[in-house]
HAD family phosphatase
Amino acid sequence: MPAPERGRGAGRAVPAADAHAPVSIVFADMDDTFLATDKTVPAGNLALLDLMGEKGVPFVPCTGRVWSAVAGQVLAHAATRYAVASDGAVVMDVRDVNNPRRLHLSALGRERALALYERVGELPVTFDAFWDGKIYVSRRRFELMRGFDIPPYDRDMYLRYRTPMDMSTPRLLQSLPNVERITIFTGEDDVRARAIEAVAEDPTLHYTYSSARNLEVMDADTSKGAAVRWLCDRLGIPRAQSVGFGDSPNDLSMLAAVGDGVAVANAYPEAKAAAAHVAQWTCDESAVARYLEPLL
């Protein structure tokens, strides 16, 4: 097996099982990490879920998506007991997928969402409000997405999982009980820069991203990493016995929070630099399964 890259020094793609801490829980980003580029679940990763189910090792999707948008084959699998969603704003118990329970909430809230919209409302951007398993956007801003230079698979996912509303964005936000986080998609670099400036005006917020065209805005204390730490502590699992997989800047905190943070081969340079290991396989090559199977 050829030697791979390693984020913090030389090493192998798959550490020897006897040199690796026991794997008691696994966290994985979905898009371009556990899912293939075309948003399907590679066969190798499906087989991995079966193996994890047999061994009683919980699998936790750790995604920027709302929990209900996790691929059905993953969400309904017996190995998937919990989900970290909305970039860590929520932790869900999904063992009964027909009756999921929210265990933890770290919300941006309506007031800060409204204030942010006042600062970006004149820009040609989407403004997507995440709440309770759904993503709401005013129809006028929803339609902007069709004109943005976004990879087709990503655009299709956006259009599939958003709920366009025939009302203004302020009215939409005021109609929601709460807001977990906001996603802003932009079409031009200068618009993106102005949106970033608008986020930075409120020091209680921060942003990350998973593509060159989006900003994922949340409370300053909200992140995938914070949610991973919360869930491990709740379950009494030492974080040294956790493994996490990612590819994007929104995965950096998760890669740092787990015992073994692994970037897939197609990851952003920032994710590779932050990871303990960089797998030699891409998301299309079942990177998560090929790295993890020898350790289970």
Remarks:
- The domain at 17-106+223-295 is CATH 3.40.50.1000 (Rossmann fold).
